[in-house]
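Shipment paperwork, digital attachment
Item: protein structure file
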Amino acid sequence: MPAERLTRVVDAPAQGIVHLGLGAFFRAHGAIYTAEAVAASGGAWGITGVSLQSPRVRDALAPQGGTYIALELGPGGEIARRVDVVRGVLVAREDPEAVLDLMADPATRIVSLTVTEKGYCHEPATGALNLAHPDIQHDIANPMPVSAPGFIVRALAMRRAAGLAPFTVLTCDNLPNNGQVAKGVVLALAGEIDPGLAAWIAAEGRFPSTMVDRIVPATKPEDIAHIAELTGLQDDAPVIHEPFRQWVIEDDFVDGRPDWGAVGAELVADVTPYEHMKLRMLNGTHSALAYLGYLASHETIADCMGDPVFADFVEYLWRAEIIPSLAPPPGVSLAGYAEALRARFANPAIRHRPWQIAMDGSQKLPQRLLGTLADGLAAGRAMPGLMLAVAGWMRYVGGVDELGRAIDVRDPLAARLKALSDGAAGLDGKVAALLSVREVFPEPLAAQLQAPVSAAYAALYTEGARAAVFDITP
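Attachment content:
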């Protein structure tokens, strides 16, 4: 007998938040925190999602009234729960005016976003707005925007014209100093459109930084079928997540916020040490495993951790190369955090595939790997593990794996990276060509990386990824 279609049975909270990029991560993290905060303390903090391009999430959630199931997968079993905080989803490419009107509505007090690193239209190596980006060029010239920064700037202009306070911009993406990055690109774009608007945003706006943490693998058709069997409900937009979650938020808002602190979020004055810890220890090793594990034919991160060679490699990265670059957040043991990460990575119930983590590597490398590398080299450490991780990325974006099979590289610079790799002579030449991409590798760091990354790249070709990883670990 077919499962009954999931439908809304309780009203969503009144409008309070617009979220740009309503993908699986936010629905498994920030939306759940918000639903729990409203349940605990009340408040008009319903969320309207915005898909900047694709109608896929809207089309899946609309027949369900915005409600969906979040399935927690832990070593001890499964827990399914309904999430009812999402009021609906707009598709920006279909009706940008409706999106701007909602963002400009005084009921909207927070605009949050998870648009991935590339959604900020910035230079990953510097954090500055890329004024040559075609979406930014469009948004400077046209009142109906297409980019996330463009929607924020145009909606803030509408609020200023109406005599309203700005909304708080709350970024939930994996970027160091993400609030400052968001503020920087918004102010730069606003300055191109109206310098007076930029001055008003700088004076009145708020862009708190955050650190978000929860492993959320992509939902697969078999997950949808399993949830239907488990719950008796057909949900076309469920999310899968691990038990662990963390949200650290700079407590600086224009006009209030949900009571996230009542449900476990950490409200702090400075997010920076938490961001660095998570980006370098979790995301950095995730990326290393994504490229090298993929090349070694491991299907999931848990499979990598089940291979003693890769498990020892990750432990080595934390101990010898990453933790020495970090100042711990107050009261946090970095060794204890590493131990918790090891258990999370090894969770067999979470099938987090390397290709999902490997996406958009040109946007992720600077904050996940290159910052740690630069600090280590400045301190005189050799950093062979992270050099190998960078070489793994280079082999990955070359588009062919160790068995000669084509790799579906998903990256905004994919065509350019492959052309650089294919057009270079010899292994050292390929490394030099990829190190010349200044959006990723600043020139002084690229010069330091040439020799050690070339040696690591050669090892990947002559020995294979697993043997090269084994050679790194003492």
